[in-house]
């Protein structure tokens, strides 16, 4: 398997420079295999893909957008029918990935070994972009695994370095679970002398604030964030306090490694060798560059539970080609979860978006959350630990009404701590109205 891992990695180092025509040919070749497999061996897709198959069995790529979007609720209600009854040769065994439900109901998806190897190689390609030293120590602050990764011992995992390296060139990898306090995470990273630390963006920002408050000497070279995208203020605070460069991974249990930040800036490169990604508007049409839209993914190698045109639950903005020379597609922003689109009585549906850094600077609170609580009512929930803090409510009211709707009622709600989900994620835009797409 080490040789296969290295072979995939070498291919990825070449494919990042493929022309758009070469990547399109790759996608069509791989997706044709996936579509035929799903139609034959996955009951959920037995007729769902009919629109793209011609009478002679060939695929009409011009009709790709006629394939119905697969929704999160399908993964719950149609789970058994979405599982393949047979895997292609050499796709290996299967494992299951649990998604915590920060963008909807918790779901479990099944994956196969080949997809796992490609996903691991994609991660190592990203680490190569950012010049991480695979011989050094890596700590992850994550997981709901109870006492097996509890402080002070944590748990030592298999090395985070590529499997093809010699053992003496592969650094150690440790994990402490998410229940570990900020103070104890700081102690653990210092004790392990780890230059690399991974967790969710909001957790890492809170860790940075704790470091500043406690006046501890914690400095790390690189923090790796995962899950949703990182905001400007999170990145700035992590860099200012921890001295760390930020490597942001856009990932999910359903789609594995979807995109990662380029070493040349804060934008993201899509990993098209692992996922075919679309950015669509509310009418299902491709978004123009710079236009926010829904993220739709098709994991190319998941033949255990194909997710063909799956609505990931995020809003993203496609960006222009990168100056770094890589030909991989660019996302200039990943902004929010589709489960938290705001819906209004006149039928309007919007993806709420405020200028994050400007809003923080002018409103005054670094941590805030906009929540739709009624048909024309929202809460602006913000965190403050300073009794003397006075937020600029006039600015916030004007910004929200200007960017969303002029007739919104805005309630200001002060919170004592950051409103994280049970999985430790922070949801910037949230709807508490009952709905399901």
Note down, in words, how this protein is organized.
This protein has 437 residues and is α/β, with parallel strands linked by helices. The protein has two domains: 2-133 and 195-337, ANL, N-terminal domain (Rossmann fold, 3-Layer(aba) Sandwich), CATH 3.40.50; 342-431, GMP Synthetase, Chain A, domain 3 (2-Layer Sandwich), CATH 3.30.300. It contains ten helices and 20 strands. The strands form four sheets. The chain has a twelve-stranded mixed β-sheet, sandwiched between helices. A four-stranded mixed β-sheet has the order 19-18-17-20, covered by helices on one side. The chain has a two-stranded antiparallel sheet with strand order 1-2. Strand 1 (94-99) and strand 2 form a beta hairpin. The longest helix has 22 residues, at 20-41. The chain is globular, with a radius of gyration of 22 Å. The chain starts with a helix and ends in a 6-residue tail after the last strand. The model has no long low-confidence stretch (mean pLDDT 90).
Topology of this structure?
Blueprint: H1 2-15, H2 20-41, H3 72-77, H4 79-82, E1 94-99, E2 107-112, H5 113-129, E3 138-141, E4 155-157, E5 173-176, H6 182-192, E6 196-199, H7 201-214, E7 222-225, H8 232-242, E8 245-252, E9 256-261, E10 268-270, E11 275-280, E12 292-299, E13 310-319, E14 330-337, E15 342-343, E16 349-350, H9 356-363, E17 368-374, E18 377-383, H10 393-403, E19 409-415, E20 429-431
Parallel strand pairs: 3-5, 3-6, 6-7, 7-8, 17-20, 18-19
Antiparallel strand pairs: 1-2, 4-5, 8-9, 9-10, 10-14, 11-12, 12-13, 13-14, 15-16, 17-18
Helix pairs in contact: 1-5, 6-7, 7-8
């Amino acid at each position: 398997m080490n040789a296969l891992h290295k072979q995939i990695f070498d291919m990825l180092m070449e494919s990042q420079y493929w022309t758009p025509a070469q990547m399109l040919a790759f996608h069509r070749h791989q997706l044709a295999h996936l579509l035929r497999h799903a139609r034959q061996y996955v009951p959920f897709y037995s007729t769902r893909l009919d629109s793209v198959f011609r009478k002679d069995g060939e695929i009409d790529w011009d009709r790709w957008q006629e394939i119905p979007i697969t929704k999160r609720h399908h993964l719950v209600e149609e789970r058994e029918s979405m599982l393949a009854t047979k895997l292609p040769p050499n796709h290996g065994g299967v494992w299951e990935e649990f998604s915590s439900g920060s963008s909807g109901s918790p779901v479990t998806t099944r994956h196969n070994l080949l997809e796992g190897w490609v996903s691991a190689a994609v991660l190592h390609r990203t680490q190569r972009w950012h010049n991480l030293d695979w011989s050094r120590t890596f700590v992850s602050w994550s997981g709901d695994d109870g006492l097996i990764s509890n402080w002070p011992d944590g748990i030592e995992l298999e090395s985070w370095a590529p499997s093809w390296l010699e053992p003496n060139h592969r650094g150690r990898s440790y994990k402490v679970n998410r229940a570990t306090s900020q103070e104890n995470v700081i102690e653990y990273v210092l004790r392990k002398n780890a230059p690399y630390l991974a967790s969710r963006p909001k957790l890492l920002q809170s860790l940075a604030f704790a470091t500043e408050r406690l006046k501890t000497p914690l400095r790390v070279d690189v923090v790796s964030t995962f899950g949703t995208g990182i905001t400007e203020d999170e990145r700035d605070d992590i860099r200012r306090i921890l001295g760390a460069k930020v490597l942001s991974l856009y990932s999910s249990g359903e789609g594995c490694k979807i995109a990662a930040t380029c070493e040349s800036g804060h934008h993201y490169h899509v990993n098209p060798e692992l996922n075919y990604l679309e950015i669509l508007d509310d009418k299902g049409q491709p978004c123009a560059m710079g236009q926010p839209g829904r993220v739709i993914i098709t994991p190319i190698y998941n033949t255990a539970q194909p997710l063909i045109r799956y609505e990931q639950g995020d809003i993203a903005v496609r960006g222009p080609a990168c100056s770094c020379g890589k030909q991989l597609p660019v996302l200039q922003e990943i902004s929010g979860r589709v489960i938290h689109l705001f819906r209004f009585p006149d039928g309007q549906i919007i993806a709420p978006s405020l200028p994050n850094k400007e809003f923080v600077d002018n409103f005054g609170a670094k941590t805030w959350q906009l929540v739709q609580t009624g048909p024309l009512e929202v809460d602006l929930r913000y965190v403050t630990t300073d009794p003397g803090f006075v937020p600029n409510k006039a600015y916030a009211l004007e910004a929200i009404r200007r960017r969303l709707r002029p007739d919104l009622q805005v309630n200001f709600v002060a919170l004592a701590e950051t409103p994280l989900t049970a999985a430790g994620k922070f949801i910037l835009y949230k709807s508490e109205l009952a709905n399901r797409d």
